[in-house]
Every structure is written in structure tokens, then in C-alpha cells.
């Protein structure tokens, strides 16, 4: 039956679907760690983090809906056919086997399982054995996605959120330090808001939003809404509801990270911090609950990511490999990457995210305001080229220091710092993208003027 809009109940259901896709166990480790870094400067840090970890992902979903696209490849085709293949592959590999899927396994191990194990085996050996079992389950369920993943989503996620709620309330009621006494890390003494922007990138939700958009649109269509403009509005409404819930949880988890500084030193990563906080407030039982909940939550996310990546690559390259073969490739590759450890995965994912985010953000914004220039391809091309050119410098600057030294990148980074405004705030791509926008609009206007000048002129008799 066709509907003119969703009911309040349906809107909440779509919002819950969005929240479930975006918010996994990995989304906890970054705000907790951010809280420890920001200390009493947590409020501007929370605003910056929420802007990139919530605002941009919701806009990404809305961009798919507002342009009536059938997915990321369809949206990025506005730049070019070949570019759509390149960008779709790069984005799915980033939120798949390169970083996000391995991070699920290492987050489960670091925050959940590792604190429960003894010292009979080395940590590297324990990680390998755990990841072997983890990805064996991922593969089995990814080639038979059905009631198992649905059951995990309906049972484990609510349990995980219930435990999280207990942990947050307990921590907030019994802080180990006053917020005003929590000293920020040196990197967060100044420019806290801008430092937190790049922390929000690490959730990978903005690029995931471009991949998830079509799923939400399909759900809305199944509920009976057919009008494209109405679908776009419903995606935005439901996205705002999901975003508010995510922002609320992020704010509270950042706060418990701040309040943990009275008991713990700044942790190497958020997985370690989350484990320490759970053990401190809820004891051994809390550690067990966290281990079970976070492992199954990450398992569900990994199954979904392997499935979506395999399905996408089958569509992109229909004559290459079968779905099962792609699932094998992505699972094995994720297994290998996961064994470099959570801290290393986070370290090496940051440069790639700094490279991908500017073109992704500009694509989202162009899609949302594209009616103003009739989604002209020249505008898309110019903005995309300029944003990629600038993001390469962000990529180089985000590489580990030892890699920068080995590649002698100091002069290149110094040039970018001197040339690009806001470069030190990880926003060096903004001005080049605006320049690209101006060039694209002028090019489009010149083309229109040229077309009008070639129109035949008929004499008036």
C-alpha cells in the first residue's frame, strides 16, 4: 500500500535500523579515548567529534536519498564512470577488509577477551588464535546470512546497550575525578574542537553512510513510500533521530573517559580504556559481560561488512569471482590485517581516512545542493579533483613520523602548511574545494553562454 509519509512508529523503526548499522562496539573506543585526551576541554571536543561522527554520516545517507541514487556507485558516477568504480572500491575496501573488519576483531580481543586471559601464551599468539576463531564464524555466517545475524541483532545489541547504560550510569554517579580537575593531553591544550574533528573520522561512519544509504531507502520503500522527494525527507527525519541518540551516547562516553583519568593513565587506545573502566566499576562480572557483548556486537558488524563488500564486488565485477569466493578473500585478508593489533590498525587507518574524507564530504555536499547547478558534471569534476589534490597532503601529514622521515616528506608537508589555510587543523582541503567549485560553476556558465551564442537567429518578417 502506498503511503504519503511514514508513521511515527515507522520513523522510529527506520531510525533504529540506521542506529544499528552505524553504532557498533568500535564506536565506543574512540569517544572514551577522546575523553581521556580532552580532559576538562571535553565539551568543544564532543562538539567536534559529533560533527564528523554523526552529522556527516547522516548527511551522507540523506545525499543518497535526495539524489534518488541507487547506491554509492550511482552517486559517484556524477563525477565519472571510471571514477565511480575507483571510489566505490576504495570506500568499501576501507570500511571492509583494510580497516573496519579487522578492527572489529581486535576491538573484541583488546576490550573484551584479553583481560580475561592469563599469561601462559604471548599476547600475539592469543590474538592470532582469537582472530582465527572469530573469522571462521564470520565466514560461516556471511555465506549463510539469515536468522543468525537477525538473532544477534535483536538479542545481543540490546544487551550490549543495556550493559553500556549500566556502565555509563555507574561511572557518572561515581566519578574518580572532577571534570574540572582533568588535565587535557598536550595535543588537546589548544584547538580542541579541530583536533576532535579528525577523531570523528576514525569511526568511518561518514563513508559508511554513503554505503548504508540505499539500505535505508529500501526499508522506507518497503513501508509503502514511493515519492522520491518524500523518501529523501523521511531519510533525513529518521537520520536526525538516529543522530540524536548517537550524539547523546557519544557525549556520555566521552564524559566517562574524562572521569576515568582520576584512576587511570591515558590509555594507548580506547579498547584498553573501556576494559579498564568496566573492570573498575563492575568488577570481574563486568569484564565478562563486556567481553561477551562486545564480541558478538563486533561479530555481527563483521558479518554485515563481509556480506555487503562481497555483494558489492560481485555487482562491480560480475565475471570475476563468485560471492562465496569474494567472502573468502575478504575474510582471509581481514584475518591477516587484524593480527597487527588494534593500535597499529588505528594508526595506519588515520592517513587513509584523511585521504578519503575530503572527497567523500564534498561529494555529499554537492549531492545535497546539486539542484542549484542542475548537478552539472563539470562542477562535480572540478571540486573532486581539487579536494583529492589537497587531501593527498593531509594523507602525507598523517603518516607516522618514522615513515615521513624515511620518505623525506618534511619539505612537502612544510609547503602544504605554508600554502593551504587551515592545514594544521586538518581542514586544508576546504579552500581548494571552494576554488574547484568556482572553476566548475564558471566553466558551466561559459558553456551555457556558448550554447546560447550558437542558437540560430531568425529574421523578423
TrEMBL record:
<feature type="transmembrane region" description="Helical">
    <location>
        <begin position="42"/>
        <end position="64"/>
    </location>
</feature>
<dbReference type="Pfam" id="PF05525">
    <property type="entry name" value="Branch_AA_trans"/>
</dbReference>
<dbReference type="GO" id="GO:0005886">
    <property type="term" value="C:plasma membrane"/>
</dbReference>
<feature type="transmembrane region" description="Helical">
    <location>
        <begin position="206"/>
        <end position="223"/>
    </location>
</feature>
<feature type="transmembrane region" description="Helical">
    <location>
        <begin position="125"/>
        <end position="143"/>
    </location>
</feature>
<dbReference type="InterPro" id="IPR004685">
    <property type="entry name" value="Brnchd-chn_aa_trnsp_Livcs"/>
</dbReference>
<comment type="function">
    <text>Component of the transport system for branched-chain amino acids.</text>
</comment>
<feature type="transmembrane region" description="Helical">
    <location>
        <begin position="12"/>
        <end position="30"/>
    </location>
</feature>
<dbReference type="GO" id="GO:0015188">
    <property type="term" value="F:L-isoleucine transmembrane transporter activity"/>
</dbReference>
<feature type="transmembrane region" description="Helical">
    <location>
        <begin position="288"/>
        <end position="314"/>
    </location>
</feature>
<keyword id="KW-0813">Transport</keyword>
<keyword id="KW-0029">Amino-acid transport</keyword>
<feature type="transmembrane region" description="Helical">
    <location>
        <begin position="380"/>
        <end position="400"/>
    </location>
</feature>
<keyword id="KW-1133">Transmembrane helix</keyword>
<feature type="transmembrane region" description="Helical">
    <location>
        <begin position="155"/>
        <end position="174"/>
    </location>
</feature>
<dbReference type="GO" id="GO:0005304">
    <property type="term" value="F:L-valine transmembrane transporter activity"/>
</dbReference>
<feature type="transmembrane region" description="Helical">
    <location>
        <begin position="420"/>
        <end position="443"/>
    </location>
</feature>
<keyword id="KW-0812">Transmembrane</keyword>
<feature type="transmembrane region" description="Helical">
    <location>
        <begin position="352"/>
        <end position="373"/>
    </location>
</feature>
<protein>
    <recommendedName>
        <fullName>Branched-chain amino acid transport system carrier protein</fullName>
    </recommendedName>
</protein>
<dbReference type="GO" id="GO:0015818">
    <property type="term" value="P:isoleucine transport"/>
</dbReference>
<comment type="similarity">
    <text>Belongs to the branched chain amino acid transporter family.</text>
</comment>
<feature type="transmembrane region" description="Helical">
    <location>
        <begin position="85"/>
        <end position="105"/>
    </location>
</feature>
<feature type="transmembrane region" description="Helical">
    <location>
        <begin position="235"/>
        <end position="258"/>
    </location>
</feature>
<dbReference type="GO" id="GO:0015190">
    <property type="term" value="F:L-leucine transmembrane transporter activity"/>
</dbReference>
<keyword id="KW-1003">Cell membrane</keyword>
<dbReference type="GO" id="GO:0015820">
    <property type="term" value="P:L-leucine transport"/>
</dbReference>
<keyword id="KW-0472">Membrane</keyword>
<feature type="transmembrane region" description="Helical">
    <location>
        <begin position="326"/>
        <end position="346"/>
    </location>
</feature>
Amino acid at each position: 500500500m502506498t503511503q504519503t509519509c511514514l508513521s511515527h512508529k515507522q520513523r522510529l523503526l527506520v531510525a533504529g535500523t540506521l542506529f544499528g548499522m552505524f553504532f557498533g562496539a568500535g564506536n565506543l573506543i574512540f569517544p572514551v579515548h577522546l575523553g581521556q585526551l580532552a580532559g576538562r576541554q571535553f565539551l568543544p571536543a564532543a562538539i567536534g567529534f559529533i560533527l564528523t561522527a554523526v552529522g556527516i554520516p547522516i548527511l551522507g545517507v540523506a545525499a543518497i536519498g535526495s539524489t534518488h541514487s541507487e547506491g554509492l556507485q550511482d552517486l559517484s558516477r556524477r563525477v565519472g564512470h571510471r571514477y565511480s568504480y575507483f571510489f566505490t572500491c576504495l570506500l568499501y575496501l576501507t570500511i571492509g577488509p583494510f580497516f573496519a573488519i579487522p578492527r572489529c576483531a581486535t576491538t573484541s580481543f583488546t576490550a573484551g577477551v584479553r583481560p580475561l586471559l592469563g599469561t601462559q601464551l604471548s599476547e600475539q599468539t592469543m590474538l592470532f588464535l582469537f582472530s582465527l576463531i572469530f573469522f571462521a564464524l564470520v565466514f560461516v555466517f556471511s555465506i549463510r546470512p539469515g536468522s543468525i545475524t537477525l538473532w544477534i541483532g535483536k538479542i545481543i545489541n540490546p544487551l550490549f546497550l543495556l550493559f553500556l547504560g549500566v556502565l555509563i550510569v555507574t561511572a557518572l554517579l561515581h566519578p574518580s575525578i572532577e571534570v574540572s580537575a582533568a588535565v587535557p593531553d598536550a595535543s588537546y591544550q589548544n584547538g580542541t574542537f579541530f583536533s576532535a574533528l579528525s577523531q570523528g573520522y576514525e569511526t568511518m561512519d561518514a563513508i559508511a553512510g554513503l554505503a548504508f544509504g540505499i539500505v535505508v531507502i529500501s526499508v522506507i520503500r518497503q513501508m509503502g513510500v514511493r515519492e522520491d522527494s518524500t523518501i529523501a525527507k523521511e531519510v533525513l527525519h529518521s537520520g536526525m533521530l538516529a543522530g540524536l541518540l548517537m550524539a547523546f551516547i557519544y557525549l556520555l562516553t566521552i564524559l566517562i573517559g574524562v572521569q576515568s583519568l582520576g584512576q587511570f593513565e591515558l590509555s594507548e587506545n580506547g579498547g584498553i580504556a573501556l576494559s579498564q573502566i568496566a573492570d573498575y566499576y563492575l568488577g570481574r562480572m563486568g569484564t565478562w559481560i563486556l567481553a561477551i557483548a562486545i564480541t558478538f556486537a563486533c561479530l555481527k558488524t563483521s558479518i554485515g561488512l563481509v556480506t555487503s563488500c562481497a555483494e558489492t564486488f560481485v555487482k562491480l565485477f560480475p565475471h570475476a569471482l563468485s560471492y562465496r569466493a569474494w567472502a573468502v578473500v575478504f575474510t582471509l585478508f581481514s584475518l591477516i590485517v587484524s593480527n597487527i593489533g588494534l593500535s597499529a590498525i588505528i594508526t595506519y587507518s588515520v592517513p587513509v581516512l584523511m585521504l578519503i574524507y575530503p572527497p567523500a564530504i564534498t561529494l555529499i555536499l554537492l549531492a545535497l545542493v546539486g539542484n542549484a547547478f542542475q548537478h552539472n558534471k563539470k562542477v562535480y569534476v572540478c571540486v573532486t579533483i581539487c579536494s583529492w589534490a589537497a587531501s593527498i597532503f593531509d594523507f602525507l601529514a598523517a603518516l607516522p613520523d618514522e615513515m615521513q622521515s624515511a620518505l623525506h616528506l618534511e619539505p612537502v608537508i612544510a609547503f602544504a602548511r605554508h600554502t593551504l589555510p587551515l592545514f594544521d587543523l586538518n581542514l586544508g582541503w576546504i579552500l581548494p574545494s571552494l576554488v574547484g567549485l568556482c572553476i566548475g560553476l564558471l566553466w558551466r556558465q561559459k558553456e551555457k553562454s556558448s550554447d546560447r551564442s550558437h542558437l540560430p537567429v531568425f529574421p523578423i518578417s
